[in-house]
Write a structure and sequence with these properties.
Distance between the termini: 13 Å
Helix content: 25-40%
Strand content: 15-25%
Number of strands: 11
Strand order of the largest sheet: 8-7-9-10-11
Shape: globular
Radius of gyration: 20 Å
Largest sheet: 5 strands, parallel
Structural class: alpha/beta
Number of helices: 11
Length: 250
């Protein structure tokens, strides 16, 4: 359950608002049909995280329309992924946003204060993996997590990773982003007691086959507790890491 819905229900419990008032706040239509898109307005209530806009393949005008629908229905913090710089400039003229060009991410409404149960570590094998890692890190941050970035700590110089033992040993979840042979996830998985989310990237020479080599290495990891998302899917890793970092102990 997301923090805003829980706060609303706590107000009912404490007698601060009536059941009818709370029901009115939750009784909006489950989606809004704006012609080119059906905006899911109840996703945050169902899943704890509101709908995210995938920017690639959408025109700036379509993105503006979706944002307008979300804002009209009280979703004031919006994440847009895979957004080009040109499209971001056009959208920004209608809805103020912050654009992160390396990650191709835009955020409307700013970053929240972290409220996850611990820290998410985002580690990369090399500097070339940073754009995918930043997509993961920014996704996790906008979903209310504290993120520690450890960039360029790949297995070609293992001492670089081991110099951050305190950060990796103290993490709630770790995102390991690597191309080439993708060995970073297995190394981290053999060191820590938390879930590791492996992100293969398309970085590498010819025989890396656009990230397939790293993907297969990560899928065949001998370290327990390693899960794998798709090639270059930083967003998926950041989203999953946030879900793990917000699991409450019952």
């Amino acid at each position: 359950m997301d923090i805003e819905t829980k706060a609303l229900l706590e107000k009912v419990k404490n007698g601060e608002i009536s059941v009818e008032e709370a029901a009115l706040k939750l009784k909006t239509a489950p989606f809004e049909d704006i012609g080119f898109a059906k905006v899911d307005l109840h996703r945050k209530l169902r899943q704890g995280i509101a709908e995210v806009i995938y920017g690639a393949g959408k025109t700036p005008e379509q993105i503006i329309g979706i944002i307008s629908s979300m804002k009209a229905n009280n979703q004031n913090r919006i994440l847009i992924t895979r957004l080009s710089a040109g499209a971001a400039e056009t959208v920004n003229a209608a809805h103020e946003l912050t654009y992160y060009p390396d990650a191709k991410i835009a955020i409307v409404g700013g970053m929240p204060e972290p409220y996850g149960i611990g820290n998410i570590v985002v580690a990369t094998g090399g500097t070339s993996d940073i754009p995918v890692a930043e997509e993961a890190a920014l996704t996790a941050e906008v979903l209310g997590n504290k993120v520690i970035r450890l960039f360029d700590v790949g297995v070609a110089g293992l001492h670089r990773l081991l110099s951050h033992n305190e950060d990796i040993m103290g993490a709630t979840v770790i995102i390991a982003v690597a191309g080439m042979e993708g060995a970073l996830a297995s190394v981290i998985g053999g060191l820590v007691d938390c879930p590791v989310i492996a992100v293969p990237t398309s970085v590498g020479y010819g025989a890396s086959f656009g990230g397939i080599s790293a993907l297969l290495s990560m899928l065949n990891s001998c370290a327990s507790g390693v899960s794998v998302v798709n090639i270059d899917n930083g967003f998926g890793a950041g989203y999953l890491a946030s879900m793990i970092n917000h699991i409450e102990v019952k």
